């Protein structure tokens, strides 16, 4: 045996570094204030990592961060918001292999296609950033000496219960909410949360202001009702709520401050998107102005 071979044989096996995935709040990565975490397993039952289990306090902190970020983000030009979403797409594509590896249980070729679809989805929404106002706004005919102009404006802070499709579905619910100027608090897929925090690492380094997107990992049944009843949340997307009783409870809680509610329904995330998700969280402002003044 050569000296090199003996050295290789004597070298101890390398231990893998097991990662504890944290929350993403206000542009930072804190642990849950409760100190809780839960084990994330593969489809075969193998341990993958620990993910922070967000609490009610974490949800409140995320809403506060989203509210703080709202004036700056909603006041940015649509073109600037589109540029930032395009930058997110660029960086997501740069980490294609990592995202594909984290899509547990998906064959490698299919996983790569899902990452590519998520990149394309971000680019699609980025392209709409400075066009949705023209499409949804209008100069209204009025029987009088007035201009009557309607224009869309963001609703505010949107709570999003993300679907179990952990990348394409996640991107498909976040992008339309923020491209129009909203900020959001996202409850990631309980079953497959790892791609959501890797996406948070992309968001944190892609010029997106801290607090525009906040991502919580944990149990949907625990977090969704608190976000639905939070009085500083303006709208809630229940796409990822699969329990009909929980969905009804969240709708009832949301009614307390007249939140906009996007009800859960089966979705094929591979289908081409439309404007529905962008317009779901827009308000219409109408301005009257006398002619000749």
TrEMBL record:
GO terms for molecular function: oxidoreductase activity. It holds the Pfam family Aldedh. It comes from the Bacteria. SUPFAM superfamilies: ALDH-like. Keywords: Oxidoreductase. Gene3D superfamilies: Aldehyde Dehydrogenase, Chain A, domain 1. Residues 36-261 form the Aldehyde dehydrogenase domain. This is Aldehyde dehydrogenase family protein. It comes from Sinosporangium album.
